[in-house]
Design a protein that fits this description.
Layout: E1 12-15, E2 23-27, H1 38-44, E3 49-53, H2 70-80, E4 89-94, H3 96-111, E5 118-122, H4 140-151, H5 161-180, E6 193-198, H6 206-209, E7 220-225, H7 231-234, H8 236-247
Parallel strand pairs: 2-3, 2-4, 4-5, 5-6, 6-7
Antiparallel strand pairs: 1-3
Pfam families: Thioesterase
InterPro entries: AB_hydrolase_fold (IPR029058), TEII (IPR012223), TesA-like (IPR020802), Thioesterase (IPR001031)
GO molecular function: hydrolase activity
Length: about 250
């Protein structure tokens, strides 16, 4: 359960205030929302204050139009993030969220050098190494099949007509952002980067996440967890334990 929005209004949901603790800002996957990180606040208490990004077009922002581009999304989020001297700021992004977090990290470092303690990325190749995507062009049936493969499930909710009419446009819109993203091949962050992935992720292999080492001027480390693309749901205690370790300066 969240204790509401932060002073940054639309963009951030705070899952329990922890005054003075390091801030962990979490970026959801394509189609995901801030509520997907509710369990993290409990698991990381009292080591961190967890803020989850709420993209437009979902949950309490369902009526808002989706972002026009991933870069525009990053601009808005970076402007909303609180950067406080003496309070470490760590970003964690999964899948699409990894790319958004990377772009937000770049903007934070331009505006406030040294303001970012660490960037954690998950379930996504490095921006300059990611293959081109055309998933947003698939038919509804093919898109649902891709979601089943990625989730490793035959969940019948994907066959529900109401679900499809409500959520497939948002998911397709997020995939469109991914397809339209053109990262600067020379882009780097100064903060250290930690990259995570699942052993059986059909969209990213452990060796591919190692290329995140090429986009940081700080240290780099990686961790592979047992599971598929959404390993972090099944391995939550292990994942948050690793994140907690990384929160220590």
């Amino acid at each position: 359960m969240t204790d509401g929005t932060t002073g940054s209004g639309r963009w951030l949901r705070r899952h329990r205030a922890r005054p003075g603790a390091p801030r962990l800002v979490c970026f959801p996957h394509a189609g995901g929302s801030a509520s997907s990180y509710q369990g993290w606040a409990r698991a990381l208490a009292p080591a961190a204050e967890v803020l989850a990004v709420q993209y437009p077009g979902r949950e309490d922002r369902f009526e808002e139009p989706l972002a026009a581009s991933l870069e525009e999304l990053a601009d808005e989020i970076a402007a909303a993030l609180p950067v406080t001297a003496g309070r470490p700021l760590v970003l964690f992004g999964h899948s699409m969220g990894a790319m958004v977090a990377f772009e937000v990290a770049r903007r934070i470092e331009r505006a406030c050098p040294g303001g970012l303690a660490r960037l954690c990325v998950s379930g996504r190749p490095a921006p300059h190494a990611a293959p081109a995507s055309t998933v947003h062009l698939l038919s509804d049936e093919a898109l649902v099949a891709d979601l089943r493969t990625m989730a490793g499930t035959s969940d019948t909710i994907l066959d529900n007509g109401d679900f499809r009419s409500l959520f497939l446009p948002t998911i397709r819109g997020d995939y469109r952002l991914i397809a339209g993203y053109r990262p600067d091949p020379e882009a780097r962050v100064a903060a250290p980067v930690s990259a995570f992935c699942g052993t059986d992720d059909p969209h990213v292999r452990p060796r591919e996440v190692l290329r995140w080492a090429e986009v940081t001027g700080g240290g780099f480390d990686s961790r592979v967890f047992t599971g598929g693309h959404f390993y972090l749901q099944d391995r939550l205690p292990e994942v948050v334990a690793e994140v907690a370790r990384l929160l220590v300066p």
